[in-house]
Amino acid sequence: MCGIIGINSNRPVSSAIINSLKKLEYRGYDSAGIATLSDGTINEIKSEGRVDDLEKNSLIQTIQGSIGIGHVRWATHGLPNSVNAHPHSSQSVSVVHNGIIENSTLLKKFLVSKGHIFKSQTDTEVIVHLITENLKTLSIIDSIKKTLKALHGSFALGILFKDQPDLIVGARRGSPLAVGYGPNENYLGSDSYALKAMTNKITYLNDGEFCFIKKSNVEFFNEDGKKINKKVLELSNEEEKYEKGDYKHFMAKEIEEQPTTLKNGINEYLDTSNTDINIYNFPWKISEISSITLIGCGTAYHSCLMAKYWFEELTSLDVNIDIASEFRYRKKKLKNETLYVFVSQSGETADTYAALDLCNKNNMKTCAVVNVIESSIARESKFVLPIHCGTEIGVASTKAFLGQILILYILALKIGALKGDIEQKTFKQKIKDLKQLPNLVEQTLSIDHKIQTIANTFNDVKGSMFLGRGFSYPIAMEGALKLKELSYIHAEGYPAGEMKHGPLALIEEGLPVVVLAPRDNYYKKTISNMQEVIARGAKVLLITNKSKDEIVSENIWEKIEVETANEDLLPFLLTIPLQKLAYYSALNKGFDIDKPRNLAKSVTVE
Ligand code: AGP
What we know:
Layout: E1 3-8, H1 14-24, E2 31-38, E3 41-48, H2 51-56, E4 67-73, E5 88-89, E6 93-101, H3 104-113, H4 125-135, H5 140-150, E7 153-161, E8 168-173, E9 178-182, E10 185-189, H6 192-195, E11 201-204, E12 210-213, E13 218-221, E14 227-228, E15 233-234, H7 250-256, H8 258-269, E16 291-296, H9 298-314, E17 318-323, H10 324-327, E18 338-344, H11 350-361, E19 365-370, H12 376-380, E20 383-386, H13 399-418, H14 424-445, H15 449-456, E21 463-468, H16 472-487, E22 490-495, E23 512-516, H17 523-535, E24 539-545, E25 558-562, H18 570-589
Parallel strand pairs: 16-17, 16-18, 18-19, 19-20, 21-22, 21-23, 23-24, 24-25
Antiparallel strand pairs: 1-4, 1-10, 2-3, 2-4, 5-6, 6-7, 7-8, 8-12, 9-10, 9-11, 11-15, 12-13, 13-14
Helix pairs in contact: 3-4, 4-5, 8-13, 8-14, 9-13, 9-16, 14-18, 15-18, 16-18
Bound molecules: 2-deoxy-2-amino glucitol-6-phosphate.
């Protein structure tokens, strides 16, 4: 998952490329590079690390050219260093690439036999040499066609040619790519977000298509090289300014913004009398749906796991959940009466997109729960439920998680009511309770100081466990993921009742174990499981909700109490201390909170 930008203009382009690359860093931040064309020379500058590091390179000030391409990388093949950074260039072409070329080893063998010399360890470099080889005998268009046909795997490409001062070629298979239109200049970008500062007029390439970007026009071709016409979409030209403000990190800000996320979602989907849920233009009759399959990756998968509990309780649907990278390759029977729901903050996650594509190709009922409404997953789903949480910059997802589970809860309630699986009285009461949620989250956010102190304990630990049952189990999984990705501590999320079947062997004196035991149906059972780990030396942080009843357990190390709500809503509140625990523990360790190592915000490779 890398970021691509291309600009063909009459003005010098290097600083505009650098600015766009900064916006694309959410796609990868281990190295960055730029190539421009001036006086028949390809000028290439690359650097390990962030776009800021590239900008500090003294040569960047001198790079000339009114046509150029740029790239931010998330390494797939080869170390994240400046040699493997894109663009990759031969004497005649320069290429930026997002995706994976699966037959690169074979192609490289062939190209080496033809005398091509490779400099990097990347799969991308084969594309450079293949085009160079094909250009020896073919026209530009034929060499592009031939090259693309030879590539297996996924790609979005930006290509610059030494002898073509007015041409950037864009091509797409699997990985998204957009074209933008400006005054006497045109652009190529991994997505419209990268282009928004320059234009709101966008065309998205479909799989297999490629395009010729000239200064004054753009031509589109299908995979056979036949010219095609494409629609120009006009996006809202409000460019959202999203700044850190007084916060040290975007993540800290995003955690605090969660009451607003919930208010936005509630205002969007609850009718003004607060007695019904509005889901407009749902394209299917509810009687046509007897099961639901929820699909996502990472935190979005945890949202699906959470939703499973609500859908099972509130509706009569058969509920399945799936990790997108597993779903897409399993041999399974897709069913007409199933609603396939794709959950994604970015809407660009390659595995989730591929799972959606599979369902669409089989003419299934597809619905997206996404944050970025201009994203590929939103555009290609038959129905979209936006989560409206605004830009999320922190790689560790926080407000998008609460936004996703809110919308999924609302969907479960609505389907339950439409199918008559829950009584109207219960439905209305749950809507009333839901209205209180933003305030309850707001109050829970104030438990801050205590979590900061507790987080100190996580400074030197080797590992940790997060346990919960029922509604709290998905939240335990999410808490463990947050701690892993931010503070690089091994953290295992587990159903508390499953511990005795193996993981109990991991418990030793002083191991921190976070136990989620709100006063719900599972409370007593979870407390028993907690006692089992305490008996084996675990240092237990108990997270529960406020109650008059005393906790019947001794030797708890620390206790945090969130606000009280109806059982369905407790997962929202339990999430808050876990997000903060991960945040403060990474802060103590001095790690890069908004850009944890090895990760990217948008995972556009499989
Ligand atoms: C969450 O903290 C992660 N960084 C990651 O698991 C993320 O949720 C996952 O990659 C899915 O992303 P998406 O929601 O944009 O599809």
